[in-house]
């Protein structure tokens, strides 16, 4: 099974786009700033070029990971690799190659990944950082939406 690198690149842009909306002061940005202890002064002192550049690289890595999480057929190809010409693999892919390959299924698995992976990781960090539940829910909500959209793109774009 070949990876759709164009879908991965498009999915990698999603965290930046959703973040621009989600953390906008007119949406949840003001509440996030208050919950996180962020100030306008701290925001102005940042090198946004570096932040956005590194974010894009990390988002690309994330998109590659989410790709494997939402497309189940990748697991089948990993089992038989490097013998991708095996008759059993060809038969499996002929019958199930596009099973569950749609936008809705990708969104579901992206959201599940956020709830069962991102929530515990961010939640644990936030608790030790003495952040409140508002902070956790704002950030996890962002990742549920973001990973659902990324998963949707990656799984549905054949």
From TrEMBL:
Record InterPro entries: DUF1761
Name of the molecule in the record: DUF1761 domain-containing protein
Organism: Winogradskyella luteola
Coiled-coil portions: none
Keywords: Membrane, Transmembrane, Transmembrane helix
TM segment ranges: 6-24, 45-66, 107-128, 135-154
């Amino acid at each position: 099974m070949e990876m759709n690198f164009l879908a991965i690149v498009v999915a990698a842009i999603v965290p930046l786009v959703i973040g621009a909306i989600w953390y906008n002061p007119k949406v949840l940005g003001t509440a996030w700033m208050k919950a996180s202890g962020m100030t306008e002064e701290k925001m102005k002192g940042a090198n946004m070029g570096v932040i956005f550049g590194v974010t894009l690289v990390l988002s690309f890595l994330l998109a590659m990971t989410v790709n494997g999480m939402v497309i189940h057929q990748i697991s089948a190809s990993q089992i038989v690799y490097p013998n991708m010409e095996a008759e059993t693999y060809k038969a499996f892919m002929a019958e199930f190659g596009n099973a569950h390959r749609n936008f809705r299924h990708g969104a579901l698995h992206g959201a599940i990944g956020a709830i069962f992976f991102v929530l515990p990781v961010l939640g644990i960090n936030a608790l030790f950082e003495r952040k409140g539940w508002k902070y956790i829910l704002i950030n996890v909500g962002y990742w549920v939406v973001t990973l659902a959209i990324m998963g949707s793109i990656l799984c549905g774009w054949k």
